[in-house]
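Work package 3, deliverable 3.1, input record:
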Amino acid sequence: MKSSVTFKVADLCAALSIPVPDGLGEKIIHGVGTLESATGEEVAFVSKVKYQKEAASSAAAVILTPIDFPGTDERFLPVNNVMESLLTIITMFHPTPKPESFVHSTASVAEDAELGENVFVGPGVVIEGGVRIGANTRIESGTFLGEDTSIGESCWISPNVTILEKTVIGNRVRIHPGTVIGADGFRYELISGRLRKIPQVGNVVIEDDVEIGANCTIDRAFLEETRVGARTKMDNSVHIAHNVQIGSDCILVAQVGIAGSTKVGRGVMIGGGAGLKDHITVGDGARIAGRSAIQGNVAPGAQVVGTPAIDVKSYARFSTFYRNFGDIWPRLRVMLAEFEKNRSRD
Amino acid sequence: MKSSVTFKVADLCAALSIPVPDGLGEKIIHGVGTLESATGEEVAFVSKVKYQKEAASSAAAVILTPIDFPGTDERFLPVNNVMESLLTIITMFHPTPKPESFVHSTASVAEDAELGENVFVGPGVVIEGGVRIGANTRIESGTFLGEDTSIGESCWISPNVTILEKTVIGNRVRIHPGTVIGADGFRYELISGRLRKIPQVGNVVIEDDVEIGANCTIDRAFLEETRVGARTKMDNSVHIAHNVQIGSDCILVAQVGIAGSTKVGRGVMIGGGAGLKDHITVGDGARIAGRSAIQGNVAPGAQVVGTPAIDVKSYARFSTFYRNFGDIWPRLRVMLAEFEKNRSRD
Amino acid sequence: MKSSVTFKVADLCAALSIPVPDGLGEKIIHGVGTLESATGEEVAFVSKVKYQKEAASSAAAVILTPIDFPGTDERFLPVNNVMESLLTIITMFHPTPKPESFVHSTASVAEDAELGENVFVGPGVVIEGGVRIGANTRIESGTFLGEDTSIGESCWISPNVTILEKTVIGNRVRIHPGTVIGADGFRYELISGRLRKIPQVGNVVIEDDVEIGANCTIDRAFLEETRVGARTKMDNSVHIAHNVQIGSDCILVAQVGIAGSTKVGRGVMIGGGAGLKDHITVGDGARIAGRSAIQGNVAPGAQVVGTPAIDVKSYARFSTFYRNFGDIWPRLRVMLAEFEKNRSRD
């Protein structure tokens, strides 16, 4: 993908603290690509030896490789950690927006809102009373921050996000468009024969370095708090119900749903579309496969899959039976028929 | 959760029409909490005897209890119905916004739109021609109301909601952020070898006292109406397709999807993530478990679960087999092998 | 559904190039309905002979029928293709908005954005630098177009849509409210023991004549592009991850999720709520049933269903076993018990 900035190969090598390949230092590079997509003006990368052939035939100007990558190609840039070097290069070509102190004329900012240094407030943003925003944070167009919301430093809130009252967001949090944080939890009680809404007057707390995808929903707690732990990453359209507690360093893939008051430990991975029942506990380091339905507690470190979810080994056995059912069932049926015929004869 | 208002214990007792406990009447209360979370300046509550110990050790200033709750604690406030009293107290500490007559300067309101008394229109709201809004309704920032939409009295529409043309919404309806009502139903027909879009020119009708969660989608009908019955409650990210009819008093948990023209009766409960096929009927009072796939009609009062959904008793049997498959299958396999060996010998 | 315009029956017949029925030419028609819903001032339609009775008893003023529809009713309007004629009539009563050159005073349009002829820009729209918009395109209120986005001719982008930088959208594309295009793909790598976000600097390309439902999310690619092929139609709340390639003429029903780098061929149908694993290939013309979990490649033309998905015939057999498990299992258990008793006796 072509960038709007360019660098010489020598610039890239300097940034990576590696030697400049002979005769290529002055070459102008326009962006980063894959072995397949990179043009002669782009840098590509390769990690695995099995892509040796693709590396050789790539049109890329230069190619990041592991130190011990086989073959001799003057375009190779051997580095200690390809992915880390790639991050450095991508960030040079595609820097995140620089902090800037700016409030668009169409934004509505309450008089008592406190904005730190270099806060960007885009067009149409609404910031209600009592809101506090830390330094270097970016609030993009159309986003709503309800009363007494607190947002830390160096956050980046995308367009058309809705963050409702009393939400607390840490530092370096990234929230993608369309996400809703702090809507009412879903609880009704039958009181004297009538279903009554139970007011949801708790809040949502998002810890440092969390990333939340597009069109997610994270509901406020009944009385206390719904919490997402530090460094946890959430893909798009994830639903987190009221009073849920998610530990640090978790990965939640798209379309996951977690019902009320469930506790998810640290370092848990939950595959896309999986659903977790309310009031259960998922232990640290557990791995839940995509599209699984979790109907009870999951032990620390457990790996579960299925609807309802069971451990991966049991599931593998069942899955073999299920996939081969067309062969197995006629055999079982023959046996059953003969057994029952003999029995009725007795 | 600390509130911005305070009451004396005597005020709370007066609101509940109960006697003031000796010596506590002047104590200042700052909010409501759980037995676990409440501080010495908050009121807590307990319903079940099994939490007797937690009640005794709670730091709460006062505690709502059932009349016959065991133990003698001067902080206990015995009431006829704990949940009902709790609702009263929570509402004192966290009142819903008072109706106010207000149109923000950045809102775009069509000249012929009719706004009732005490209608609140937030920043950036767009109200198109022919829209009617009843008294005491609140339309929050960034929300869009398309042509000829009608919204009843005492509704509360959250920020960044999109309600498209001709939608009809009753009284006391609550809609959470990011929800889209009245987008086109999804229908294409192969006409002369080409897939053609079938225009969706019906509308959506939401009856009184409905609550709709965040990021839901309710599509307009082809020619007639998509309808959500009175007092039905919908959690987040629920999808309702065109021409669906949902009865009154239903509960739809998060991420439910209902396909086109399906009819759901009264008082139906649908668990999170369940999917209903198009053109089927779900009878009154049916209960559909979370993550189930409904592929045919469901009888009134039926309880179904699974993918595809079957009645709960059959499912429980299958589920036992599935969960114990790792033990059962080796035994079945031994029997099958011996049967087939004997047979081939004959 | 009553329209705001009216036509005489003679006008409708002229538009369809069919003879005017005796004595009905001057009748005023107010809209289109079904056999059941149409009033005496509306036109209805019937395609199938089995609805002959409903047609006879319909209150409709006139009724579109196939040429050879049985019965003689002066209200019948026989046509070659009922659905095609119906499209013509619906479009007369409910025309799409006419292109108009308009930029609302509350929109924020970058100076260097290029707007074609007759582009409509609604209230609160944000158009960033370098954006190009083709002629006759409509951008509705609250929608955000990020830097260097390109949108073709005759597109219709609904309210509160977010389209992020560098997205490329073809001609005649329709996007419904709340949809987010171009948010970051979801990828983290463990580098030196720390989970690092991999910047997503590719883009999204939407080809001509695509329709995208409400509250969908289509993520930008890592380095290259996420692509949705021409004429593909997407229902609400569909999630498309980074680097996914979707062919032309596909149908994706609501709540489908497709994980990263998966390739979907042409003319593929994916039922509601189905989930596709990352890095797999679905062949042209494949059909995936609703709520299925696709864990591997799907062959061209294959029909698959289930969790995990298998071919429809195998699934039908398993499904019969599963649905009748309550009858089958006790018989299997008796046989197994007897077998094991005899065995232990040996």
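The domain at 102-313 of chain C is CATH 2.160.10.10 (UDP N-Acetylglucosamine Acyltransferase; domain 1).
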